[in-house]
Structure formats: structure tokens, C-alpha cells
Protein 1
Amino acid sequence: MSGTSIGRIVIVGAGLSAARAAAALRRKGFTGDLVMVGAEPHLPYDRPPLSKEVLRGTRESTALPFDPGKLWVQVRVATTATGLDLDSRLVRTSAGEEPFDGLVIATGAAPVRLPGDGEQLVLRTLEDALALRGRLAPGARVVIIGASWIGAEVATAALEAGCRVTCLEAGTAPVAQALGEEVGRLFLPWWSGVDLRLGTAVREVAPGEVCLADGGTVPADVVVTGVGVRPAIGWLAGSGLALGRGVRVDEHLRASAPGVVAVGDVAQRYSPRAGEHILVEHWDDAGTAPAVAAAALLAGADDELAVHDPVPYFWSDQFEHKIQYVGRHGALDRVEIDREDAQGFPVVRWFDNDGVLTAWLGVDRARELVKARTAVRTRPTPAEAGLPVQR
Ligand SMILES: Cc1cc2nc3c(=O)[nH]c(=O)nc-3n(C[C@H](O)[C@H](O)[C@H](O)COP(=O)(O)OP(=O)(O)OC[C@H]3O[C@@H](n4cnc5c(N)ncnc54)[C@H](O)[C@@H]3O)c2cc1C
């Protein structure tokens, strides 16, 4: 039996994965009531442009293609889910209870903030981006905490606006947490316009300055904290749903309770490819998971379920370059920095212990992306890839 006629589906969250879930449910024939509950005062919008075009002032709206009227979705904007009762099958919200037969959890992630009572800007919402843009005045002392993807994109916009930019990074290279020190150091020349202080840990943000772990201080007109995000699962505490760092779901995106799925940044999904539960936190995953989750939610008992386990992909636009990364390397993987094209940025490949390609990184090489993704998906050994085998 198909579940397309189950009575009422509630989607909690109103970002990319929520919008895609609503569309996928209707596309797959769901005809019942569909309700979307979103904490922000907006219909779903896209986030990657916030730290790029919006911050640089070349774009105002990032609204996603989503028409509640066409999809028959009742959207409750500015409404926050505060709890989940699995026995009564309802979501508690700031505006009352929402009973459900099926539930899609799509609450994304929230930025980590550092201790201290000084003003700290973060970058997750449209309001965050507009507030920060308004502060990027020529000559302003902008202190960015974290030489991360967000940190680099904010630095790019701040330099362009004529700010004096300092970046405090606890690690030994930009983006080293994601890519490792050896690869992170390749990006150092891009940061030449920034006072980049590596190995610099922050203790707290005080009014007008950032206090360092070594007792020093850095004066600031604007402080931007870009030290990562945490899945937004606080509202699920005590619900009985299995939680790890995010909502634990299987490879079909089903959570531990029947009729509940999770997608996007909030989902810690089982990846057969990785052999473990992983948090992906990239746009591509949030955009593609909902079709599989919707099918799982609507499936009858005898239906075969699709698996969501794509090769992870993300990009970042910074310092006038586009970085693209596909795959998922382990901390102990061997890094190969291919400088064959002396003019451009090297291509980086990672190989696991068995010599299997696990990840690829290219800069300004958009045309090679599909090939690289296929190469990682089909996991050739170095010999098969025509590369020297090193163990
Ligand atoms: C500034 C920025 C730049 C980025 N750039 C890139 C990039 O270049 N490349 C890339 O691959 N990825 C990028 N990303 C990541 C990408 O945008 C995310 O992976 C994607 O937005 C995740 O979508 P989502 O729907 O899971 O979560 P979100 O887009 O975060 O949406 C979740 C929604 O749920 C709402 N919500 C949270 N809690 C509740 C609650 N309790 N009740 C109701 N609603 C709630 C939130 O307010 C939010 O509106 C970027 C992210 C940001 C913030």
C-alpha cells in the first residue's frame, strides 16, 4: 500500500531541504495536508549567496523557487518548534501544536558562538548578512575569528569594502580543520591582504576587543565569529528520538521513530560508503536528500527504498577563486599535491590506506568537477587512475 494518502505531514524548518521536501512530497503524489513550520520570518531562501553576493552588495534576494499556493503548503513563518511528542504524534511550537502522521525534520544548523559579552556577528541568516554588510565600512577594523570557509568569504567581502581585516585562527593554516595543514598552507598567498594570525586561540569576545588565550587583546570595530555550526536539535531533547551530533537517520533518511525522516544539515545520516553516520552540512546534500526522504515517508510496506549516499560535494568562492571539493578524506589519508599545471593552483587528491581515491580538490576547474566526482564515486586505485602507487 502506498502512503500518498496519509493524512498530514509536518515539515519543521523552512530552508533549502524543507522547500525541496515539500516539492518532492507533492511530486510523489502526496495529497494530504502539508504544513511547514519555520522560525524565520521568511519563505525558504538560499544561504550560500549570503556570504558571497549579498555580503558584497551585488544581490538582495536569495528566495528559493517555492510557491506555497501551487504546492498547497500551509507555511507558518516566524514559528519555532519547541518540542516533539512521539506518543501523541505532535510538534509543539511557539504558536500551538501541530499534529502529524508524517514528520520531516529540516531544522538545519546554528552557528557556534564564543564566550564573552562583546558583540559577535555570525553569518547564517539573511538578517545576519545584511547586518554585517552594513558594518563593512572603509577603514573599519574587522576581526574574523576562524580562517574557515565562512571566514575566508567574509574576509573577501571585507577587503573589497576597504576594511582593515584581521583573522584569528587557532590552527596552523587556513581551512586546515577541513583540509589538513599541508593543503591549507597552499591557500596562504590568498590571505596576503589580511593580518592572518595563525596558532592564535581566542578566550572571549569583550566589548571593543577580542581577548586571546595568551592574555593579549585585539581591538575591533566588528567581530565576526566563523568557527562552525551545530545541528539544530535542541527542540528534540527528551523526545526519545535517537540523537547523536544530529538526528540519527539510516541510509533512507528514516529516524528512529516510524514516520519520521530528517534531511539537510540537521541529519547525521548513515553512509554505506563511509561505513558510519556522517554530518555533511553542504548545500548539495541538503538539496538532494529530500527526494529520498519523501519516498521513504510515503513508501508502503513492500516498496523498495532508495538509498541516499552521494559522494559529498561543496564549493567556496573566496579571494576571486572557486574552490570545489568532492569526496570525504580521512585524517590519515595520503595527500597528493599535483602541480602539473605550473600556472594554476595545484589539484589535490587524497588516497586511503589501500591506495583508493577518497577526495579531490580543484580551484577554478569547474569543468573537471563531474569527472572528479565520478572518479571518487567509482573509487579507482592509483594504478587504475594512471598514477604512481605509493604506500
Ligand atoms: C553563509 C553561508 C554560506 C554557505 N555557503 C555554502 C557554499 O558555498 N557551499 C556549500 O556547499 N554550502 C554552503 N553553505 C551550507 C548550505 O547553505 C547548507 O548546507 C544548507 O543551507 C542546509 O540547508 P537546510 O535546509 O538543512 O538548513 P537551513 O538552510 O539552515 O534551514 C533550516 C531552517 O530551519 C529553521 N529552524 C531551525 N530550528 C527551528 C525550529 N526549532 N523551529 C522551526 N524552524 C527552525 C531555521 O531558522 C532555518 O530557516 C553555506 C551556509 C551559509 C550559512
Protein 2
Amino acid sequence: MKGVAGKRVFVSAAAGGIGHAIALRFLQAGAYVRICDVDEAALAQVQDPSGRLAGLCADVADPKQVEALFHKIESDLGGLDVLVNNAGISGPTANTEDIPPEDWQRTIDVNLNGAFYCARFAIPLLKKSGGGSIVNIASTAGLHGYPLRAPYTASKWALIGLTKTMAMELGPFRIRVNAVCPGSVEGSRIEAVFAAKARARGVSPDEIRNAFRQKSSLRTLVSAEDVAETVIFLSSDSGARISGQTIAVDGHTETMRM
Ligand SMILES: NC(=O)c1ccc[n+]([C@@H]2O[C@H](COP(=O)([O-])OP(=O)(O)OC[C@H]3O[C@@H](n4cnc5c(N)ncnc54)[C@H](O)[C@@H]3O)[C@@H](O)[C@H]2O)c1
């Protein structure tokens, strides 16, 4: 892998889950990393053996908090080379007609608006750096229909549209923009999704877990580290000619009908 050492990186929602794995992988590769999260207690638990990581408390769905966050990043790091828009919530599990509008709104606010707010404040910094990389963490739900998860699915399709458009706007400034679509990632969040789907369908969580494994050609869930590896590749000089792409890290999802 060529060239993420010394890069200045921001990863949203990285006190846990996939974002945390991405932040650790950047640290391991020699980058300077800033992360944010809404969960102050989880942020306080994040270990930094390198001295190159700092956590800041912010909700990406609040544009004022995001503005303050990027002022802090600029004054701390003197600029930015990589933005990873990782924040995303599962949202409600229900048929579309049963989804409360406030649950729809919150899902769009975090998953789509949050990425827009972060990009809006990161882009001037990336331009000042003379180039850079934005990676938006979408989902295989951004490539398929996904019953019982309408706001999540809509937010991730929209994030891919935002990715393609920003890639066209920012290419002339040597800023690359790509989306990564994780499949079902092992961990507490996907277990909660299995439990919610099981309740909605009246079956056991084991049945749902098995159906999720069977939906990919490789018959597998993926790890947060699998996703992190692809994000690092795209942000490094190895990915210097890759922009506007949507890359699934999912063992090849054949269907989301379950
Ligand atoms: N876990 C999966 O199976 C899976 C699959 C496909 C895509 N994804 C996507 O990957 C990304 C990360 O998912 P995850 O499973 O690691 O998430 P997670 O649910 O484990 O949450 C990770 C972190 O996000 C923080 N967070 C939540 N809302 C926030 C907000 N508004 N502002 C700042 N921080 C916030 C949480 O406090 C938590 O520390 C999301 O965009 C998600 O949609 C996840």
C-alpha cells in the first residue's frame, strides 16, 4: 500500500463499529486521525497508543456541531487529506406505511444530511491541500431494495448519488470520491438488525442470521476490518486513479429479499 502515512484523516462516528476499525487501520498506517461520535462515554474509551488520534464529540446531523468540528480539525491538524463519512444509523424496521415520520427524518438526517454537512466543511480543506479522498460508507442496501428498511435504503441510494455527483465536481481539484458498501458486518449492530427482523417476521433470529449468510455468493458475513482495508486502499496512492465508484465489500450480495 502506497502513501497514507502522514495523511490527515477524519472519520465520523468512529468510537465503535466499522468507523473505529477504519480509524485504527489509518493509525496503523501512520496517518493523523480525528474521529467524532455522539457517544461521549464510548469516545473516552478509545485507546490511542500512537499519540496521533483524538476524539471529538459531535452529532453529524447537526450542521452547527459539524461546523465547529471542522474548525477544530483545521486548527489541530492544519488541514485535511481524507474524509470518511461513516456515520449511519439503522433506522426503523417496519413496513413503509407503519414508519413514523420522525424515524424517517432522523435516519435521513444522520445517514444522508450528516454526510453532506461533513463534505460541505471538508471540501474547502481538501481543496487547500491540493487534493484528497472522500469515502462514503453506504451499504448493500444502497444497491438493492431492502424490505422493512425503507428510510435506511433510501438514504444509502441517495448517498451513492451524492458520491457520483461530488466525484464529478471535485475531480478537477484532484479530490476523489468513492462509496464503499459493506454487507452484513459481524457485531452487535447486525445482531440487533437480526432481532428486529425476526420480530417483524415472527421467526427466530437464527433463521434470519442464516438467511443473511445465504444471501451472498460467498455465503458469509464480513468483518469491520474487511471494510477498513478497502477504505484505506481507496484513500491511499494505490487508489489514485479510482473515483466515482461504488465498491461492495459483501461477498457479492445476490438479493436482499428476506
Ligand atoms: N454494521 C453493518 O452490518 C453495516 C452494514 C452495511 C453498512 N453499514 C454502515 O456502516 C456505517 C457504520 O456502521 P456500524 O455498524 O459501525 O455502526 P454502529 O451502529 O456500530 O455505530 C457506530 C458509531 O456511530 C455513532 N453514531 C451514531 N449516530 C451518530 C451521529 N448522529 N453522529 C455521530 N456519531 C454517531 C455511535 O455512537 C457509534 O459509536 C454506517 O453508515 C452503516 O450504515 C453497516
